[in-house]
Structure formats: C-alpha cells, structure tokens
Amino acid sequence: MTARDYGSYYRSIPHCALREHVIWLSNCVMLNIIKVPSTQWNFSLIIFYLPATNMVADRSSIEGHGLESSAVKDNLPVDLETAAIKAEGELLDHGADTELHRSLGTRHLTMIALGSAIGMGMWLGTGTSLVKGGPASLFIGFLISSSMVWAVSQSIGEMAVMYPVPSAFVQWSTIFISPAAGFALGWGYWFSYWITIANELQAVVTILRYWTDALPTSAWISIFWVVIILINVWAVRFFAEVEVFSSTVKFGWMLIAIVALLVVTAGGAPQGDAIGFRYWNAQAFNNGFKGFISVVPTCVFAMAGSENAALVATEVANPRRSVPKAISSIWLRLGVFFILGSLMITLTVDPKDPDLFGGSGSNASPFVIAFKNAGLPVMAHLTNAIIFVSVISTGSVSGYGGSRMLMGMAHVKMNHKIFGKADSMGRPWAGYIATIGIGGALAYLNVSNTGVEVFTWLSNLVSLLTLFGWGMICLSHLRFRYAWKVQSRHEAHLPWKTWAYPYATWWALIWCIGLIIVTFYLSVWPLNEEMSPKNFFANYISVIAVVAIWIGAQIWYRCPLWIDASTIDLDEFRRFYGNHSEEESVPARKSLVRKLKVIFE
C-alpha cells in the first residue's frame, strides 16, 4: 500500500465528529504495516494524532497526503510520515521505493557518470571531427558539448535528489511532460543501450586486431559477451567497483596522455621537432562554417553516457549528499579530460595525416597516431589497451542502463510488470536478459557482409538519441520547476537546487534543439557528399523513429501534449528526507593533494 493509497483512504472518510479518531486508529494499523518499532509507538501515535485533527481533503492538498493547517497557510506540503521523521531524523521514501539496493556512494556515482562518457567517441571519433572541421572546430566543439554536459548535469542533480527512480529521465518525462514523451524516450533509449552493446562487441574485435588475428570475429564476440554478462550478474556493488576501476584507469591514462602530448608538441619526443600551434596556423577551420557545424554533434556523441548518473542515483545510499557532491566536481573533469584532451589532439595531429583517412580501428585514433608519429610505440600500444578497457566498460554500463530503463518503464506501466522485479540482491534479471541478450546476439550480424549492412542501419537509429535524451531532461526540469511554482511551493524546500537555473537548463535545451536542426541540414546537404535519400535516412532516421513512436503513444494514451502543471503529482516517486541523516560537518581545509584527489574520487 503506497502513500497515495493512504491519502485516498483518508479523504474517503466522511466528515463527522469522530473523523479524527477514525484516522488516528487507521494510523495505528499503518504503523504496524510499516513495522515501526514498539519503542517508538508512543511518540509516533502522538505525532500521527496531532495532524489528524487538521486533515484537509480539498484540491489544494497534495494527492495522497494530508496537510496540517499551518502547512496550508504557508503552502508547505507536510504529510503524516514527514511530520514523524522531523523529530526522528530518519530518511523516508514514499513513491521512490524500489527493489534495487541502495548500496552505492558518491565515488561510484561520480566515476560512472563521466567515466562511461570516455569511450570510442573520444578515442576514435575525434579523428573524424579533426578531418571535417579542423583543429579550431574540434576544440570549440568540445567547449560547447562540455558546457552542455555541465548544464544537463545541473538538471539531473536537482531532479535525481528528489526523484531517484530506476529509469530516471524516462519517469521524469512521464510525470512532468506527458506519458507519450516518456514512452518515446524510454523505448528509444532502451533500443540505444542494446545497440551500443552490439557496437562495443564489434569494436572489441577491431581493437584486438591491432595486435592479433588469432581468433575469428565470432569467437571474440562470444568471449567478451560473456565478460559483459559476468560484470553485471553480481550485486550492483561489484558492477560499480568494476566501473570505478575502469574509469580510474581511463582518467589516469587521459591525464598521462595529456602530459605526454604536451611534451610532444614542445619538441621533447624522440622524433620530430617542436609543433606548437603549427596546425592551427596552417588551417584552423576546415570546410568553413559547414565543417564547424558538422563537428559539434560529433563532439556531443563523444560525451554520450554522462546522463547515466541519473540512473545510478537510484541506487545511491543518500542522493541528497552524493548527487550534489558529484555534480559540484563535474566541471573539473570536463575541463581536464575533455577540453584539455581535445586541445592536445589539435596541437599534435595534422588534420591531413593519411592515417586519419586510411586507418582502421585503433590505427585511426588520433592519440595512437600522435604517439606513433612522435616515436613512442609503447605509448601507442598502451593507448590501444585503454581503448579496449573503455569499450568493455561502455558495454557493461549499457547492460546496467538498459535493465534499469526497463524496470522504470514497468513502474509506470509502459512495460510488462516482470521487468519491474529484482531479486534479493537487487538484480533486475528480466531487464538484464533482454538488454544484454539482444545486444550480444545482434553483434553476430557483423560476421557476414549482409549482416553488417543491417547492423549499420540499426546503428543509425540511435545516432541522435543522446540529443533527444538531454533535451528531454532539460525540458522535464523546466516543467518540474514550473509545476513547483504553480502549486505554490517554495524553492527553499527543494532538497537541493542548482544556482544555474534556469539559464543552464535553457542553454542546454536550445543547443539540443539547434543541433537536431543542424543534423537535418547536414542530412539533406551532407559535407563533401552528394544529396541522396540513403544518406538522409542514415543520418536522420532516429528522429523520424522517435517522432513516430511519440505520435503512436499520444494516440494510444489519449493524453495531452502537455500535462497541466497544476495537476502534476509532485509527490509521486518523490523521496523525502529527514534532518539528522543529512547533517554534514563543516569541511576541513583541504591540502593540495586532497584537492587533486577530487578528480578521481
């Protein structure tokens, strides 16, 4: 029985002289249901009795919750259980209850959030962008995409603290925008997760061929399909520790690579002289403005995965403490690993390097090319190994994300209820089997030439889902804040709020919409290619698919395009916090070493 059920029951009790006593007796039964220790009964019954005499049942109350008369005056939504925990200092959930275990901490959330974004897009995709737009376009593209990630993370942080639910932004979209929006986003994202698993398994084969051709493609796919399964079959804590390790390795190597490339550009490598800004001076922008706008979406895709922080927040022990800490340090990681990393690439790799055009797999990675040209073959091999770790990490995170996406959709009745279940260790087996099973099986399409063609078209379906997802997160945040204001709630009572609202939210949303329009332009008039229907559908079919799903869901659910903000249930799936559990000591002054450690912890 949920808090909403209790609220509906209370409002159904007729108004009479004995009404408050009936409610008090009902609370006695509720205390037994929620298993309040007997030592707390006397206190709890008093707490429950006091607001019972001031119950309100009008429309101004929160759906599923009673309000004290003083709370009504101040527009403060205070329900029975919240009143109890104010004195007890406990942390209480209403709609946020799930079968997942809340066993993760701040470091897990932080490392998975940004660590999962360092993948093939960063290691390999930067080479394509360098060719298309030149060094200045690549660097500016990462500045823009990094600012978008930071802005989106602010929206995620505010909503993840209050609504830490399994499918996160899917459920947020369902609550604050419309069920059709949540349906389109949820199924689109789940599709992208198992496509990503298949992509990463194929990428593993390409990476390993840098060293050996000892085994056929199908054998390598089978081996690392099992590896991804093994990472996910244990308790979520094991998965999280594996991801923390792989993210630490990726961050650490990126830091080493940045320093090494700085030495290379200064002329300290075994081969070559000082480079400086030679490639910037030669031609900072390739292909003019069209080249620049073709690079920015690629930079965004290189940072896809940072939104996974919203999914992980569900299994964090205390989102109110962990999420803000993770969000507060994200700018540092963005600056060091993505912006500085992209800058070093533009300084050390010639956009006209033949390996960027003719290389395959890791051989086309600008990091590998830079080290090989500098006479550092060992660094090139180590970079390839890091790319391998990144690929496995991205595959395992996709298995995790896909299973949670299915679970969250089951909770809002957009999926079969079996996907909403988890075992005693918090593992949603149905979601794991569906996501990792389909993704792994699909990877075998790459064994044949016909299968490769089919797989390419399936991969094209997810090309713009990152922009769609980020945009929906920002739109959900705007709608959430608007509903909060319309229902006369005070910002001071948000568990955590970002100082950058609404400017950061609008910044990211406008860029998402703009880049989707830019991609349409480039799909119709591609860079250095002829116009063709095949090229258009290859680059824009994901938008067409999402719009079609959205329209279909709109018809099925018969819901308005926008949910009326005054009717949004702001307490559905909400997590409530007590006082004492959130108290934090005054932070001690950090040494320089501890300040640097924030990058990795």
From TrEMBL:
Signal peptide extent: none
Record's bilayer topology term: Multi-pass membrane protein
InterPro entries: AA-permease/SLC12A_dom, Amino_acid_permease_CS, APC_YAT
Annotated Gene Ontology cellular component terms: membrane
A Pfam family matched in the record: AA_permease
UniProt keyword list: Amino-acid transport, Membrane, Transmembrane, Transmembrane helix, Transport
Segments crossing the lipid bilayer: 109-130, 136-153, 165-185, 219-239, 251-269, 330-349, 385-407, 428-445, 457-478, 499-524, 536-557
Keyword Transmembrane helix: yes
Subcellular location(s) of the protein: Membrane
Membrane in keyword set: yes
One Gene Ontology term of the molecular function aspect: amino acid transmembrane transporter activity
Main location group: membrane
Domain Amino acid permease/ SLC12A as annotated: residue spans: 108-560
Descriptive protein name: Amino acid permease/ SLC12A domain-containing protein
Organism: Penicillium polonicum
